């Protein structure tokens, strides 16, 4: 069941975007951002533009996890990078599954103004689209941030220590930091969840 977000709060607290399309070999899904966060955090209206945008992949009903993140590693109280605006943290969600979740998400957005909500259904199969929507958000709304970090909601990050350990040069923004699995084989069985077909 697909539920549209209701505009029940002040107009400026809920923003909508144009439709975005993802072109893949066998299908072309499209989505819209139904709620956008405080975009001034990404622009030159601030004293300092952010070095990095962190997007935390979350689910509409997980407001307590988001609260815990805001009060711990993504808090200005515990991170100088957050306090100085060097790092900005947003939460990206798919479409809430119930009217109650829609109401809670809109209320949370009014309070924190850090949610990116898409109209994508919340399914495991759509997870890559949520990640893609995060990349598009970064390119479109926060292009001056040199880095984008995707974090799952069950992970804690020591932002200050991580940034201090970096050597940032002219090529850094062209880098991809990840965990590489060595000595593994590509799974080609199309019925397998992790198959990679050529």
TrEMBL record:
Keywords: Glycosyltransferase, Golgi apparatus, Membrane, Signal-anchor, Transferase, Transmembrane, Transmembrane helix. GO terms for molecular function: hexosyltransferase activity. The keyword Repeat does not apply. The keyword Transport does not apply. InterPro entries: Glyco_trans_31. Its EC number is 2.4.1.-. GO terms for biological process: protein O-linked glycosylation. It is a single-pass type II membrane protein. It is found in: Golgi apparatus membrane. This is Hexosyltransferase.
